[in-house]
């Protein structure tokens, strides 16, 4: 990717973070910001010469903050901090997560609030551009004093120690730096703390999750429209005047999508007259915009919190406006942790209502004329029976993942850090939840596509019909004898994640335009 993201001139945007983390956009450093970095470093060096101790400059850390460190031992102090804190364990996390947290730490370092040397920010930027991704492991962060262990693994790699991935291949950090003509960092006073004291991991995962969710919520509207249409539901309940009676922003957006998808449907028109004796549809059909809309509003709130965090310079101690190095608690991850947990609740509920719509399509008593389980030869074929089982199993898992992590503080560091956010854990489970939602929606799309085919000669609307055609073009067979279903679910899940379903069904929306940019490799 040729796009370059400028760091230091202004707060990064969510799109900037996604471009670098997911699409390999290069980074450039603002010249004026580099001057601020150099000026703040000069202040730290003056404090280093002061016989009066300054936390993180001439003292130990955490519970050892009162221990004075002699000048000749301070390089060892910084290196020891990184080595000891790089204590992650478990499977490596995804490269995009590591790149996001590294970029976000770079942004804070470029703020001139942390006291690092220019060579530190230049090394972090060069590692990103060279595709050197430090190996960060799943467990280790409590989300307070920031994401210490994950950020320490990044700093360790910049020191030429530990492991990294380059093009997916794990190798020693020293070898990767040498191959990119980069010199390992030798950390000076304050720099170790500055590299690890931030909410960058949880914030990076929040921004990536919001990028995913923008497309998944469009996809949820499309899947719902396919279910409503194929189950002979009505679109009258989504009318704009009815939505205006409850002025919820997300609900109005979702209802507008449903109206657009169903307005030109011959299938909906076929039973829209007085001969349709049903008074109202089941909640999973009728209340789709209320549930999907509430999830949209939750995402909007999370995006607001993320935008504030993107404008933050999180470090402890930090160089304040008065030029003093001051301790603070801005590294506490509570604001980010709360919205990560909130999003997990919304994701679980959107998946839950989707699975209910799928189940209705398969139940002959509720599907209004569709064959049991959409099977070809009832009794011999099982149709999509077990696809619904898979969706139900995922929804059950998502309910467990919706249990908040942010209420589960546990004390650490000899009770100095006696209340922590668990924001990293909240972010990790949200990523798993989003994967589950994509799969549940894929099952509904597969079910809806088969149900639409089974309504022939009635035809679906243009948007839902385009999604049905996309599914068929991807190799997912229509009605017929039973076949191996698992590959179908994997295929459509990939279409959902890539934004292809959203783009086919609702090509004019903001989220689907972003999905198109992602699949094209643009930021």
Question: Could you explain how this protein is built, in words?
Answer:
By secondary structure, the protein is mainly α. The protein folds into 2 domains: 4-198, Fumarase/aspartase (N-terminal domain) (Fumarase C, Chain B, domain 1); 206-313 and 351-407 and 423-520, Fumarase C, Chain A, domain 2 (Up-down Bundle), CATH 1.20.200.10. It has 21 helices and 9 strands. A 3-stranded antiparallel sheet has the order 4-6-7.
Helical region count? Answer: 21
CATH level-4 homologous superfamily of the largest domain:
Fumarase/aspartase (Central domain)
Average predicted confidence as pLDDT: 92
Would you identify the CATH architecture of the largest domain? Up-down Bundle
Kindly report the CATH topology of the largest domain: Fumarase C, Chain A, domain 2
* Overall outline: elongated
The percentage of residues in β strands lies in 5-15%
Report low-confidence residues grouped into runs of 5 or more: none
Strand order of the largest sheet: 4-6-7
* Through-space gap between termini: 9 Å
Major beta sheet summary: 3 strands, antiparallel
Summarize the structure.
The protein is mainly alpha-helical. It contains 21 helices and 9 strands.
Can you give keywords for this protein?
523 residues, mainly alpha, Fumarase C, Chain B, domain 1, Fumarase C, Chain A, domain 2, 2 domains, 3-stranded antiparallel sheet, two-stranded parallel ribbon, 56% helix, elongated, histidine ammonia-lyase activity, histidine metabolism
């Amino acid at each position: 990717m040729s796009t370059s993201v400028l760091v230091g001139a202004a707060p990064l945007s969510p799109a900037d973070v996604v471009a670098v983390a997911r699409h390999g956009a290069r980074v450039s450093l603002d010249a004026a910001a580099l001057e601020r970095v150099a000026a703040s470093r000069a202040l730290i060096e003056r404090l280093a010469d002061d016989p009066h101790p300054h936390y993180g400059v001439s003292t130990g850390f955490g519970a050892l903050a009162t221990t004075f460190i002699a000048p000749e031992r301070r390089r060892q102090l910084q290196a020891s901090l990184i080595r000891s804190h790089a204590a992650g364990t478990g499977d490596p996390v995804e490269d995009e997560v590591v790149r996001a947290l590294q970029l976000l730490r770079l942004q804070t370092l470029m703020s001139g609030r942390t006291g690092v040397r220019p060579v530190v920010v230049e090394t972090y930027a060069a590692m990103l551009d060279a595709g050197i991704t430090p190996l960060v492991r799943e467990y280790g962060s409590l989300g307070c004093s920031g994401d210490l262990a994950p950020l320490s693994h990044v700093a360790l790699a910049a020191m030429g120690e530990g492991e990294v991935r380059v093009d997916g291949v794990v190798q020693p950090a020293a070898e990767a730096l040498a191959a990119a003509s980069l010199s390992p960092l030798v950390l000076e006073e304050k720099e170790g703390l500055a590299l690890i004291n931030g909410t960058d991991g949880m914030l990076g995962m929040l921004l990536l999750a919001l990028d995913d969710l923008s497309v998944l919520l469009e996809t949820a509207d499309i899947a719902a429209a396919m279910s409503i249409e194929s189950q002979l539901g009505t679109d009258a309940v989504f009318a704009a005047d009815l939505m205006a009676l409850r002025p919820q922003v997300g609900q109005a957006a979702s209802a507008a999508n449903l109206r657009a998808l169903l307005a030109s449907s011959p299938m909906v028109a076929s039973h829209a007259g007085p001969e349709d004796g049903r008074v109202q549809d089941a909640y999973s059909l009728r209340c789709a915009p209320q549930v999907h809309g509430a999830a949209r509003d939750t995402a909007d709130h999370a995006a607001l919190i993320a935008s504030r965090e993107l404008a933050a310079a999180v470090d402890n101690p930090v160089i304040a406006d008065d030029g003093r190095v001051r301790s603070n608690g801005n590294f506490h991850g509570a604001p980010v942790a709360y919205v990560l947990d909130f999003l997990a609740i919304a994701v679980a509920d959107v998946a839950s209502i989707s699975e209910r719509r799928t189940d209705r399509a398969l139940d002959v008593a509720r599907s209004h004329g569709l064959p049991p389980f959409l099977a070809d030869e009832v009794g011999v074929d099982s149709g999509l029976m077990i696809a619904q089982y898979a969706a139900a199993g995922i929804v059950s898992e998502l309910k467990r993942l919706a249990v908040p992590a942010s209420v589960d503080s546990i004390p650490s560091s000899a009770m100095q850090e006696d209340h922590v956010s668990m924001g990293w854990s909240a972010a990790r489970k949200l990523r798993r939840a989003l994967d589950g939602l994509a799969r549940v929606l894929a099952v509904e799309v597969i079910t809806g596509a088969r149900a639409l085919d089974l309504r022939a000669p009635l035809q679906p609307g243009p948007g839902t019909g385009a999604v049905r055609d996309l599914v068929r073009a991807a190799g997912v067979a229509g009605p017929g004898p039973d076949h191996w279903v698992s590959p179908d679910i994997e295929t459509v899940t990939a279409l959902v994640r890539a934004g292809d379903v959203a783009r086919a069904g609702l090509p004019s929306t903001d989220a689907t335009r972003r999905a198109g940019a992602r699949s094209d490799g643009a930021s």
